[in-house]
Each structure stands twice: as C-alpha cells, then as structure tokens.
C-alpha cells in the first residue's frame, strides 16, 4: 500500500451502523423457512425480552448511534403490543432512535391494529409484510397459515395506521407454479400499491419440509424455469412503475430499504437475539441459534458468539464486490480502492464481463447488465477465485 492510499483510506468516514433484532417466535413453521424459530408462550417471550436487555448491556458503540434498524424472525408481529414498545424502548434508550429507517417484518396473520399503532408510536417507519403469494393453492403449497382475506385486511390496516413505507414479499418458482401464475401474483401485489416489492426465488434450506421433498424427488430445481421467472418479474415490476435496485428488490422513488443497501455495501450492523448475525467491531459473528443457550450465555455476561470470523480488508473487498454487483447501481471501483487499498480495476474478470456484454463501465462505476445480473451468483464465485 502506498502512502497516498493510506491517507485516502484514513479519511473514509465511519460506516453506517445498523441493528438487526431477531425475534424467534412463530406460531408454526412454514415448509420453506430455514431461519431459527420456536413456538411462543408468555414465559418464553418474557425471558427473550430480558435477554434483549442483557445483550444490549454488553454492546458498546461509544458515541455512535444507529442509522437503521430491522426486526426480523421468526414473526416479530407475534409479540404483544406492550412488549413491542418495551423492546423498542430498550434499544432506543441504549443506542438512540435510528436516524434513517426502522423496519419491522409482519406476517398477515399477526397484523393487529394495536400492534401497528404501538410500532408507529415507537418510531417504526417501514412495515415489510411477507405475503409470499396471492394464490390460495400456492400458499397451501408453501405451508403458509394465512389466507387471501387476511392479506388484504392486514394491508388495509397497515395503510390506515400510516407508515412511511410498506413492503410486500413474494416467493417464486414454487413447485407447480406456472409463469402465468407468477405474473398474476406480481400484478395483484402491485395492485395493492405498496412502496416496495421484494421477490425471492424459492430456496431449499436444509432441515425444512421442502428440502425433504427435494431429497425424496417429489420436487425438483429447474434453473431455466427460474430464469424465466426472473425475467417475468423484471418486466412486470417495470410496467407497474417500480425501479429495480437490487436483483430481488424493487421500489418507488425514495422507498429503497436503506438497512439492506447498507448491508450490501458492507457497512456495520449489530445482531441482537438468538441466531442474529453481526458485522461489527472488527469481526463477523452469529449469536448461538438457541434461545436457552443464548440466555445462559448472557447470564454469564457472554453474547454466545459462534462462527466468528475476523474481518480483513480482503474479505470485505470480496463481499463489497459480490454484493455490490447485485445492485443495479453497481460498484465504484475507485472508492473500493480507497477503502480497501487494492486496485480492482484491472481484474481480468471485470474486463471480461464488459467485453461479453455482462457489465457496463461508466467512469469509475461498474454495473452488471440484465444478462449479467441473471448470472450474479456465478460471477460472485469467479470473483472469489480471482481475489483469493
């Protein structure tokens, strides 16, 4: 590293700081879900809230305050309204109110007016509702526990309470789902008039009901079919007035999810709760994915971190490129050079992507074309090979 690199890197401001809260409670397990979750009872919820308080006491951010906060799960909406206020106050009293955005995931069946009003009172700015599909047959195939009636009622309530941004999540490439059914799902979701749309290709996570069906040969993976579904959502979202800003995410102007964009840009975030992951204070780590073990560790004054990896400029550069290229804006190569002290502009793979029409270069910025974004996972694997 030359001296000019050192000066430029030293002048880079503190990264954005986010907080991810994992609420592990679910009323039932969906067939596709691989996240840590348990059924809720009052004793478990109270012990969880106590654990959140204890873990926050072990987090020292100095004078830094939160930029964004995201509550996921599990089903955060299973917490009673008063508990939502308690947990929210624990965090904001310790780390301050998020300066830019506060998102909470909600399942349609958990949406109740008192809970929404509590979240609005606490300062939540974005509700993300996982509807997954607007087709009853496909909802049943996913093992979801909500109905179309619940989806529409929940969405109306969310709008009535009045949050700055509302997001809906959809899943595609569900077994037996046709391309026409997928397009209809997207059109009906857009018809709700959300501010943001997230669409995820169905993945087969280990230890889920769908993964077992895959092993048994009852369902299969078809990459060509998945590619057609990707193309369909890109077309339908654009027709519906949404701008794609990341492979799986679309937004109306000003409604992009800042917590996620900061994550993809390899900023910093603190994970609170069992199985929550962090990238903070020089390492990447995950809390133990077990409520009792997490609580036992906190009793000893320990956060119970597992899968701890020390962060290096090399690792952060790799991930900044891989996740940055998933965003439509791409990456600023000179900025990455200044931040991590390595010149990536001359990487053979990046030149090859441009030559093959899979990426475009405008000044210092490199972005994948639609053809390149379709191959983003493969591009990421090749980048790992070149950078290692």
From TrEMBL:
<dbReference type="GO" id="GO:0046872">
    <property type="term" value="F:metal ion binding"/>
</dbReference>
<dbReference type="GO" id="GO:0006779">
    <property type="term" value="P:porphyrin-containing compound biosynthetic process"/>
</dbReference>
<keyword id="KW-0949">S-adenosyl-L-methionine</keyword>
<feature type="domain" description="Radical SAM core">
    <location>
        <begin position="11"/>
        <end position="243"/>
    </location>
</feature>
<dbReference type="InterPro" id="IPR013785">
    <property type="entry name" value="Aldolase_TIM"/>
</dbReference>
<protein>
    <recommendedName>
        <fullName>Heme chaperone HemW</fullName>
    </recommendedName>
</protein>
<dbReference type="Pfam" id="PF04055">
    <property type="entry name" value="Radical_SAM"/>
</dbReference>
<dbReference type="GO" id="GO:0004109">
    <property type="term" value="F:coproporphyrinogen oxidase activity"/>
</dbReference>
<dbReference type="InterPro" id="IPR006638">
    <property type="entry name" value="Elp3/MiaA/NifB-like_rSAM"/>
</dbReference>
<keyword id="KW-0408">Iron</keyword>
<keyword id="KW-0349">Heme</keyword>
<comment type="function">
    <text>Probably acts as a heme chaperone, transferring heme to an unknown acceptor. Binds one molecule of heme per monomer, possibly covalently. Binds 1 [4Fe-4S] cluster. The cluster is coordinated with 3 cysteines and an exchangeable S-adenosyl-L-methionine.</text>
</comment>
<keyword id="KW-0143">Chaperone</keyword>
<dbReference type="InterPro" id="IPR004559">
    <property type="entry name" value="HemW-like"/>
</dbReference>
<dbReference type="InterPro" id="IPR010723">
    <property type="entry name" value="HemN_C"/>
</dbReference>
<dbReference type="InterPro" id="IPR034505">
    <property type="entry name" value="Coproporphyrinogen-III_oxidase"/>
</dbReference>
<dbReference type="InterPro" id="IPR058240">
    <property type="entry name" value="rSAM_sf"/>
</dbReference>
<keyword id="KW-0963">Cytoplasm</keyword>
<keyword id="KW-0479">Metal-binding</keyword>
<dbReference type="GO" id="GO:0051539">
    <property type="term" value="F:4 iron, 4 sulfur cluster binding"/>
</dbReference>
<dbReference type="InterPro" id="IPR007197">
    <property type="entry name" value="rSAM"/>
</dbReference>
<comment type="similarity">
    <text>Belongs to the anaerobic coproporphyrinogen-III oxidase family. HemW subfamily.</text>
</comment>
<dbReference type="GO" id="GO:0005737">
    <property type="term" value="C:cytoplasm"/>
</dbReference>
<keyword id="KW-0004">4Fe-4S</keyword>
<dbReference type="Pfam" id="PF06969">
    <property type="entry name" value="HemN_C"/>
</dbReference>
<keyword id="KW-0411">Iron-sulfur</keyword>
């Amino acid at each position: 590293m030359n001296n000019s690199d050192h000066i430029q890197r030293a002048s880079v401001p503190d990264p954005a700081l986010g907080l991810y809260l994992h609420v592990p409670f679910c009323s039932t397990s969906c067939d596709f879900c691989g996240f840590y979750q348990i059924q809720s009872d009052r004793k478990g919820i109270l012990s969880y809230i106590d654990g959140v308080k204890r873990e926050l006491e072990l987090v020292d951010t100095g004078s830094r305050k939160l930029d964004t906060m995201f509550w996921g799960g599990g089903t955060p909406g299973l917490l009673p309204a008063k508990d939502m206020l308690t947990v929210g106050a624990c965090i904001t009293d310790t780390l301050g109110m998020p300066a830019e955005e506060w998102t909470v995931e909600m399942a349609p069946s958990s949406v109740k007016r008192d809970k929404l009003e509590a979240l609005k009172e606490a300062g939540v700015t974005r509700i993300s509702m996982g509807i997954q599909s607007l087709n009853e047959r496909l909802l049943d195939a996913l093992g979801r526990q909500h109905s179309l009636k619940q989806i529409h009622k929940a969405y109306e309530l969310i709008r009535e309470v009045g949050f700055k941004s509302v997001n809906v999540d959809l899943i595609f490439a569900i077994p037996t789902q046709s391309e026409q059914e997928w397009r209809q799902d997207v059109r009906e979701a857009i018809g709700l008039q959300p501010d943001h749309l997230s669409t995820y290709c169905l993945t087969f996570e280990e230890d889920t009901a769908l993964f077992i069906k895959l092993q048994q040969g009852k369902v299969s993976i078809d990459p060509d079919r998945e590619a057609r579904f990707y193309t369909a959502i890109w077309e339908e979202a654009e027709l519906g007035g949404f701008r794609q800003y990341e492979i799986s995410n679309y937004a109306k102007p000003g409604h992009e999810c800042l917590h996620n964009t900061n994550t993809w840009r390899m900023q910093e975030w603190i994970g609170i709760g069992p199985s929550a992951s962090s990238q903070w204070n020089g390492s990447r780590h995950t809390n133990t994915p077990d409520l009792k073990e997490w609580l036992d560790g906190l009793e000893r004054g320990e956060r119970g971190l597992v899968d701890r990896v020390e962060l290096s400029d090399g690792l952060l550069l790799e991930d900044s490129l891989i996740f940055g290229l998933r965003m439509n804006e791409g990456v600023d190569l000179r900025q990455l050079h200044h931040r991590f002290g390595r010149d990536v502009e001359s990487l053979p793979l990046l030149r090859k992507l441009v030559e093959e029409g899979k990426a475009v270069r405008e000044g210092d910025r490199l972005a994948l074309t639609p053809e390149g974004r379709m191959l983003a996972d493969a591009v990421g694997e090749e980048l790992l090979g070149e950078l290692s």
